[in-house]
Write a structure and sequence with these properties.
Shape of chain A: globular
Strand order of the largest sheet of chain A: 2-3-1-4-5-6
Strand content of chain B: 15-25%
CATH topology of chain A: Pyruvate-ferredoxin Oxidoreductase, domain 3
Strand order of the largest sheet of chain B: 9-11-10-13-14-15
Structural class of chain B: alpha/beta
Helix content of chain B: 40-55%
CATH superfamily of chain A: Pyruvate-ferredoxin oxidoreductase, PFOR, domain III
Largest sheet of chain A: 6 strands, mixed
Largest sheet of chain B: 6 strands, mixed
Distance between the termini of chain B: 78 Å
Number of domains of chain A: 1
CATH architecture of chain A: 3-Layer(aba) Sandwich
Helix content of chain A: 40-55%
Radius of gyration of chain B: 22 Å
Number of strands of chain B: 15
Oligomer: heterodimer
CATH topology of the largest domain in chain B: Rossmann fold
CATH superfamily of the largest domain in chain B: Thiamin diphosphate (ThDP)-binding fold, Pyr/PP domains
CATH class of the largest domain in chain B: Alpha Beta
Order of helices and strands of chain B: EHEHEHEHHEHEHEEHHEEHEEHEHEHEH
Chain lengths: 182, 414
């Protein structure tokens, strides 16, 4: 059976994590030509509340579209960490926002921390790019798509006026994500 | 042909766009709203020519849809769950009008309790209204089924509304790579709606039908609609072959997977069947001859096709994503479909799973296969069984404790 890699992005509604999932799936399915799909789930709230987006990437056909047990998980808030940082594969990885997740979920996986929101605000100057930093960090840590495919997918998604801002955010996230593993 | 990532809702909107629907009466409901939003944004940007009207309810929405379709306009609309039920009265009416519109239903479990997630009790409530039903398992199938649905609805041998069903969340909000066919190829497959002499001219008003009829004529017209629905089986096979020639993807009445040499079959509807498909691979890897049948057309019910594929099987596990007295709907329908044969029938075992979007795990498919084998050996099927785990029961008990619910019956005073 085909190699299947599953990633979950979770946080608060409105943080752009569903968009991050879509961009990753586009990088894999449209740019790299792999099989990929993305699904999402959220509560009845329009903003706030925990939200998650899942991406499955495979080198063969994907029969079932929902993530079952994920290889990598991101949690941007404590509520998301409590609710969605479960079902992580043994030996998988969990990336947490250093400022917003105080209580770490327990399990047989490795926890990494990055101050994602703070990086967006202080290093890039715009909180709105936190999702791109998080996405780039996950790509840097997992290598599930290439750096180039990830950046290309981000650029395709954002309005031209924000291209450079997002490229900067992507480069920062990728570098910090990769550095976590060293 | 463009390959792009689309949600099931996005695929439904693209189906409508490629079908060049002229009229969209709309009323919002989760998880369907994205379809209407997508089409509305295209209309706003002048990318498509379509008249959109927002109505005050699904009841009015279906009335408007039926009236337009009955005068030769190609109509598209979409709803879900409670909305479908709210419009139910008019579903029977527009089917009686023989109005060939296409309606998408994004399945969502019915209240109470309220849920946003999918099961099929909403769409199955519409099983007797006279509208046809196509059930989808992938986003590609959603887009393609809408094109097939217009051909089916507008065929002069059928002329009935068609509902295309997709599961909320599992398809509505799941992005999959979808091939968007070229407009020119779709135009060849689906030419403009030829309504014959049915049209609306303000200068020459006509009446299409008498409003009130007695038993004899009433029976005649309802029976005509029934016969037209039965014609849809043959017509669907015909247009399915045409579709394959034009676009290279095949859509038969049934989607079958490893059925030929199987002794046990799973029967399921909709996107949860993809989970069964994956389980079949694992069951086969463990040496078990299990297959999967997924009816695409539910109305009319593809009885003969099911009889053929189920013939000679030992056991059939019918996994219903709905709940009804006497078992799941698919189970009772399938039992009826097999009963008029005098030959040996497979033993049917009924499981209820996926209510309110509840997942069905691979282990449960293994258990379903094992339980079906045990029933075959025993020669008798157990009562319909709800897929539910001890962990889930503990969660419910916690909720009940928080709510302070009292589970014991009230004590009688001596």
């Amino acid at each position: 059976m085909a190699e299947r890699y599953e990633i979950r992005f979770s946080g608060a509604g409105g943080q752009g994590l569903i968009t991050a999932g879509i961009i990753l799936a586009e990088a894999a399915a449209i740019i790299e030509g792999k099989s990929a799909l993305q699904s999402q789930s959220y509560g009845p709230e329009a903003r706030g509340g925990a939200s998650k987006s899942e991406v499955i990437i495979s080198d063969g056909p994907i029969d079932y579209p929902k993530a079952t047990i994920v290889d990598a998980c991101l949690a941007m808030t404590q509520e998301a960490a409590d609710k969605y940082a479960n079902g992580i594969k043994k030996g998988g990885l969990l990336l947490l926002d250093d400022d917003f997740v105080k209580t770490e979920p327990e399990g047989d996986f490795t926890i990494y921390r990055l101050p994602i929101m703070r990086m967006a605000k202080e290093d890039i100057g715009r909180e709105i790019v936190a999702n791109v930093i998080a996405l780039a960090a996950v790509i840097g840590m997992t290598g599930v798509v290439s750096k180039e495919a990830g950046e290309e997918a981000v650029v395709r998604r954002v309005p031209p006026a924000f291209k450079e801002l997002n490229q900067k955010a992507f480069a920062l996230g990728y570098e910090k994500g990769k550095a976590l593993l060293n | 042909m463009t390959r792009t990532l689309l949600t099931g809702n996005g695929a439904a909107a693209w189906g409508m766009r490629l079908a060049r629907a002229d009229y969209l009466p709309a009323f919002p409901i989760t998880p369907q709203t994205e379809i209407i939003e997508t089409v509305a944004s295209w209309i706003n940007r002048n990318e498509i020519e379509c008249r959109m009207t927002t109505l005050e309810s699904e009841h009015s929405m279906l009335t408007a849809a039926g009236a337009a379709a009955a005068t030769g306009v190609r109509v598209f609309s979409a709803t879900s769950s409670q909305g479908l039920l709210y419009g139910m009265e008019m579903l029977y009416t527009v089917a009686g009008w023989r109005a060939p519109l296409v309606l998408v239903n994004v399945s969502r479990g019915l209240a109470a309790p309220i849920t946003l997630e999918p099961d099929h009790n909403d769409i199955l409530a519409a099983r007797d209204c006279g509208a046809l039903q196509i059930h989808c398992a992938t986003c590609q199938e959603v887009l393609d089924s809408i094109l097939l649905a217009y051909r089916l609805a507008e065929d002069w041998r059928v002329r009935l509304p068609v509902i295309v069903n997709l599961d909320g969340f599992y398809l509505s909000f799941t992005r999959e790579p979808v091939q968007i066919p070229e407009a020119a190829a779709v135009n060849r497959f689906l030419p403009p709606f030829d309504s014959g002499n049915l049209c609306f001219r303000a200068s020459a008003p006509t009446s299409q039908a008498v409003a009130v009829l007695g038993g004899g004529p009433y029976s005649y017209f309802r029976y005509q609609a029934y016969l037209a629905a039965m014609n849809a089986l043959g017509v669907f096979e015909e247009i399915g072959q045409e579709f394959r020639k034009q676009f290279g993807r095949s859509y038969d009445l049934l989607d079958t997977y490893h059925c030929d040499d199987a002794d046990i079959l799973f029967v399921m509807l909709g996107s949860f069947a993809t989970k069964a498909r994956e389980a079949v691979d694992h069951l086969r890897a463990s040496g078990q001859a299990v297959g999967l049948v997924r009816p695409r057309l539910l109305r009319p019910f593809p009885k003969m096709a099911l009889q053929r594929v189920l013939a000679g099987k030992q056991g059939v596990a019918v996994i219903d994503q709905n709940l009804s007295p006497g078992g799941g709907f698919l189970y009772t329908e399938l039992a009826t479909a097999l009963y008029d044969q005098s030959t040996a029938k497979p033993l049917l075992v009924n499981f209820i799973g996926g209510l309110g979007g509840r997942d069905i795990s691979r282990e449960e498919f293994f258990e379903i296969a094992a339980e079906t084998r045990r029933a075959v050996t025993a020669g008798t099927a157990p009562l319909p069984r709800l897929l539910f785990t001890a962990a889930e029961l503990r969660e419910v008990r916690k909720l009940q404790a928080i709510a302070g619910s009292r589970r014991e019956p009230p004590r009688r005073e001596p």
